[in-house]
Amino acid sequence: MLLFINAEATNTKENTVRSLMKDATEVSTGWVTASGLEVNLDSLQDYCAAEQTSIFHTLPESITDDDTFAFFAHHIFYEVWIDGNFIYEEEVPEHFFYNKGPGHCWCFIDLDEEYAGKQIEIRYICGYPEQTGYLSDVYVGNERGITLKMISERFVPLVASLFLLFLGVIFVVADFPINIG
Fold it and tell me: Which of 27, 131, 135, 141 is 20 to 30 A distant from 64 in Cα terms?
């Protein structure tokens, strides 16, 4: 009886993880400029000048209040607008001696059900002229599902990195008593 309950609980957990990951829809294609030209998100620098530029995409027709719009930004300052309404802006802290530039960061924006089927606009400007600015891993869906999808896609490198970190710590600890004496 306990084996059956354990197997059923495990099956339910696996189904929950699968259903959450199915809710995360990648929307890295289908982006266009204001003039209707298709945009390759990996090379936004091709479309990016010293002034602010916009790219557009239509959100899915089925959005719930639990859904999130997520993307990974590389070397760009950005704002997010939905049907002309301002939604989100990257926070850029001011420093006394220098301004912090845009690096690499994940952006998670909560969506409302009313945004379904509307046009999302990302207004951006590249942070550095010598760097290529771009977006990657653009998703719409449940935030937990997006996070699980990202982890599962990067699971092998994550495990390898943790293993190498563990080995490094072991070698430093093992070498420490030898160099003291």
Answer: 135
